[in-house]
Amino acid sequence: MAPHTAPATRIVLAALALLAFVTAAQTLPYVIVPNPAEPIGWGQSAVISISRWIGWGVPAPVIIEYGLRYDFRPGRRLASALLHVVMFVGSTLFAWAVMMAFIASVAPPNEAMPSFGELIARGVQGTGAHTATLVYVVIIGIGAGVRAWIRARDEAVQSARLEALAAQARLETLAARLQPHFLFNTLHSVGALIHSRPEAAQSMLAELGDLLREALRETPGGVVTLREEMTLLERYLAIQSQRFRERLRVEMDIAPDVAALPVPRFAMQPLVENALRHGIAPKAEGGRIVISAHRSAMASDNALLIRVWNDGAPLAEPLRDGVGLATSRERLTMWKPGATLSVRNADDGVETLLTIPQ
Q: Which end of the chain is more exposed for a tag (fewer CB within 10 A), N or C?
């Protein structure tokens, strides 16, 4: 059975029931048997009215299923025409037979009922054939409408699924771009210590192995909790502390109520790397990095605010993103529409602000 047949049949049956109710209400004041002074009751009027329509409910699924399958496409026009003629004639005769049976059930015992042949003749000569044609066409139309709606819905679902898959593929590509960038910069830090401090370089390589094991761990959709992202960041800072030693001072302020919120993996590391590279590294005395995460202070906003500030030299205007920040911004906006990533000179230093709507 086609997916549109069952819902279209339910609509047809509901429409037939409505027609039966309306026609029963219309005929009740006028139909009288057998004594003109005694109008028939509501029950008899309802039975007579229902008899005109209920018979169409039985062949309706067949009409919808095969009537839409044989839709006069090239190569099937003759077969379609023959099938529709057979279904129309058969459905009409069946509906009239049901109507006769219903009327006979409420007719007075002595009243002579017309034969089935007489009923067919009356239907062909009167409005019965026109009504049957209209009912048949309406059933086909309802089936076609439901089929079109189901196809449009399925196409919309499929389109949304394809867009989601494309977006996921793009996010994975961006994440794959971040990982070698991150690895290259970390290895550069190790290389800077190999000759001057080989023990520190060896320790850093061990830290790097643990960090890469954590960074390359599979995560659903490339999303982790802020707590997990901070664990990755702490490993990264442990490596950088081997390089900068006392020149690097880090302060963290992570609100407990945001630790379980979702963030893209590698959301924080490029921000800190940017602070180290442009803020701390150029200064002989080093500097301080402050990392904070909390909910927005605005009552109408429930966004997660992540701030990375360093007291390095102000950035030259106009500000330009490197590979890490540009890739992070693109991932962020794809993952969460409305999210923002901004860098500015602020509070005698440089501030990177990450805002993620919840």
A: N
Q: What is the DSSP string of 31-92?
A: -B-S-TTSBPPHHHHHHHHHHTTGGGGTTHHHHHHHHHHS---TT-HHHHHHHHHHHHHHHH
DSSP conformation class of 2:
-
Please answer whether residues 280 and 247 qualify as being in contact, where contact means their C-beta atoms are separated by less than 8 angstroms: yes
**In Å, how far are 114, 207, 233, 291 from 306, measured between CA atoms?**
86, 25, 13, 7
Helix axes 60-69, 128-191, angle to 10 degrees: 60
Distance CA 319, CA 343 (A): 8
Separation of alpha carbons 313 and 334, rounded Å = 31
Give CA–CA dist 191/195, Å, rounded: 8
Q: What is the token pair recorded at 194?
A: 């190999």
Q: Please give the single-letter amino acid code of residue 96.
A: W
- The whole model's pTM is what? 0.51
- Coil, strand, or helix at residue 28? coil
Say whether pLDDT at 332 is over 90.
Answer: no
DSSP state of 27: H
Distance from C-alpha of 167 to C-alpha of 146, rounded to nearest angstrom: 31
pLDDT tens for each residue of 82-131: 988 999 888 888 888 887 777 776 665 555 556 666 666 665 665 677 78
- Local confidence band at 306 (pLDDT 50, 70, 90 cut-offs): very high
**From edge to edge, which strands make up the β-sheet containing 340-346?**
248-254, 287-295, 304-310, 349-356, 340-346
User: Domain map of the chain by residue range?
Assistant: 5-157, 192-356
- Which among 247, 260, 244, 353 has a CA at the least distance from the CA of 307? 353
| Domain 192-356 belongs in CATH node 3.30.565.10 | yes
Collapse the DSSP code of 272 into the 3-class scheme (helix H, G, I; strand E, B; otherwise coil) and give the result.
helix
Torsion angle of the four alpha carbons 242, 204, 229, 246, in this order, in degrees rounded to the nearest 10: 0
Look at residues 70, 65, 69 and name the one whose alpha carbon lies nearest to residue 4: 65
